[in-house]
Design brief:
Layout (H helix, E strand, L loop, with lengths): L5 E4 L1 H5 L9 H14 L3 E7 L11 H6 L8 E6 L2 H8 L5 E7 L2 H8 L3 H13 L6 E7 L3 E2 L3 E2 L2 H12 L6 E5 L6 H14 L5 E5 L6 H10 L4 E4 L19 H10 L8 H15 L7 H4 L11
Parallel strand pairs: 1-2, 1-10, 2-3, 3-4, 4-5, 5-8, 8-9, 9-10
Antiparallel strand pairs: 6-7
Length: 303
């Protein structure tokens, strides 16, 4: 098991994309700055999608143009199609993360194409990149589909094989609708590792059925070195029914750091960022540690 884990902050993208309350450009940039201040080494800053379908992502280009430059933090843009991929490559980001959905039905609803066509497009786009931008891929619905049900591991591995033809610098598998258990996490990570022992693996987990943190721990035990999370546990997918929030960054940091696993994220600043997002969205967010506080409490806090 790794003694350090990289946390990718996704609240500026996945965290708000499903919210009805539209946040201002300034608020989104403040979220990104708070992520940097808390110690995030990588941030998903936006998604290059049609703003008519996902209004929260309407200012993707403006966000990228205004990103702080005096930082070692790497910025990631999400892409679902050719136009989004090209926009991400031209936005001055460090990484572009392309999504391939493991099930045909969800792929059609999410991206307007079937899985095989999505794989072919990813390979074509990744093979034509000339800019100094790292290309990664996320396999969505890797554990289950909201329309087709169970995702057989054999089907997942076919999609993994198709993605790996493009030689992505990182492979992420996503529990988009929060159905996985720790057993599922270990089985699928181990299956991928048997065929691709060297590719960096990343987990994107949703806490829909309250298994998110347990799944994160199982991933760390299986050797995953990167985990997605969002401040306050906000998040969801506009095209997946009942796909509720991500695992909360501050909850994840508390669990890992208390277990002796370094994250590089300042827990107090993560809690402050979660409270900022809660205020910005004007709703109670799912995060737990932001409500309970750190432990043990300092003497000063009790006087």
């Amino acid at each position: 098991m790794n003694n350090s884990v990289e946390i990718i902050e996704v609240s500026p993208r996945d965290g708000i994309q499903n919210e009805k309350k539209l946040l201002s450009l300034a608020t989104k940039l403040e979220m990104i700055q708070r992520s940097i201040d808390a110690g995030a080494s990588r941030i998903e800053v936006t998604s290059f999608v049609n703003p008519k379908r996902v209004p929260q992502m309407a200012e993707a280009d403006e966000i990228c143009a205004a990103l702080p430059k005096d930082t070692d933090c790497k910025y990631i843009g999400l892409a679902l199609n050719k136009r989004g991929f090209e926009r991400a490559c031209n936005a001055g980001l460090d990484e572009v993360n392309f999504v391939v959905v493991a099930s045909d039905t969800f792929s059609q609803k999410n991206q307007g194409t079937d899985t095989e066509t999505g794989l072919s497009l990813f390979n074509e786009l990744a093979g034509n990149v000339s800019d100094p931008i790292a290309v990664g891929v996320t396999i969505a619905a890797a554990f289950g589909c909201p329309f087709e049900g169970e995702m057989p591991i054999e089907r997942l591995m076919k999609v993994v094989d198709g993605c790996m033809e493009a030689n992505p610098f990182e492979l992420a598998i996503a529990d988009t609708i929060g159905v996985a258990t720790p057993k599922d996490i270990k089985e699928r990570i181990n299956a991928i590792r048997q065929h691709y022992p060297d590719v960096p693996l990343r987990l994107h987990l949703h806490n829909t059925r309250n298994t998110g943190l347990a799944n994160a721990w199982a991933g760390v035990e299986a050797g995953v070195a990167a985990l997605d999370s969002s401040f306050g546990g906000v998040g969801g997918c506009p095209f997946a029914p009942a796909a509720t929030g991500n695992i909360a960054t501050e909850d994840l940091v508390y669990m890992l750091e208390r277990a002796g696993i370094s994250t590089g994220v300042d827990l107090t600043k993560a809690i402050d960022a979660a409270q900022f997002i809660e205020d910005a969205l004007d709703k109670t967010v799912p995060g737990m540690v932001m409500k309970a506080g750190v432990f043990p409490q300092s003497v000063a806090a009790n006087t």
